[in-house]
Q: What sequence folds into this?
C-alpha cells in the first residue's frame, strides 16, 4: 500500500476521531447517557451560529460528528506533513514535539476553563482531555508504524546533531 501525505493524514485523522468518539460513547454509556457528549458539544458548536432553534439531539450529534472528523483529519494532515518533512529534515521533529506539548497544555487549560460554560454543561474536562490524549496516541502509533524510519529520525532530532 502506497503511503502519501494526504492518505496518511486522512487515515491518522480518521483513526484519532474514531478513537475519541468511541471513548466518549464508552464514558457516556457508563454514565447511562449514550451520545450525551456529542450532543452537548454539537449544541455548543451550533450556538456559535446563533440561538438554538428547534433542533433535535440528533442534529447536534450529526453536526458535531462532521466537525469532529473534519478537525481531526485536518490535524492528521498537519501531522503527516511534519512526518514527511522529517524524512529530509529530522530536526523538525524536535520543534514539532515542543509545539505538541504546548498545544496539549493549552488544550487542557481551555477544556478546564470551559468546564463551567453553559454551552458544554456538565461535560468534564478530564473526559475531553483523556479523549484527546487517546487520539494523540492512536494517531502517533499509526504514523510510527507506517513510517518505521521515524525512530531513527526522532533519535537524530532529539540528539541535537545538526
A:
Amino acid at each position: 500500500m502506497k503511503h502519501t501525505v494526504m492518505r496518511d493524514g486522512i487515515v491518522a485523522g480518521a483513526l484519532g476521531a474514531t478513537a475519541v468518539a468511541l471513548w466518549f460513547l464508552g464514558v457516556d454509556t457508563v454514565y447511562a447517557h449514550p451520545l450525551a457528549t456529542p450532543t452537548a458539544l454539537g449544541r455548543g458548536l451550533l450556538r456559535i451560529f446563533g440561538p438554538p432553534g428547534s433542533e433535535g439531539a440528533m442534529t447536534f450529534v450529526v453536526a458535531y460528528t462532521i466537525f469532529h472528523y473534519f478537525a481531526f483529519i485536518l490535524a492528521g494532515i498537519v501531522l503527516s506533513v511534519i512526518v514527511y518533512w522529517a524524512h529530509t529534515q529530522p530536526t523538525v521533529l524536535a520543534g514539532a514535539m515542543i509545539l505538541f506539548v504546548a498545544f496539549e497544555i493549552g488544550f487542557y487549560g481551555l477544556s478546564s476553563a470551559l468546564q463551567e460554560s453553559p454551552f458544554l454543561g456538565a461535560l468534564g474536562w478530564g473526559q475531553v482531555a483523556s479523549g484527546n490524549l487517546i487520539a494523540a496516541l492512536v494517531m502517533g502509533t499509526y504514523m510510527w508504524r507506517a513510517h518505521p524510519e521515524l525512530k531513527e529520525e526522532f533519535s537524530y532530532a532529539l540528539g541535537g546533531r545538526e
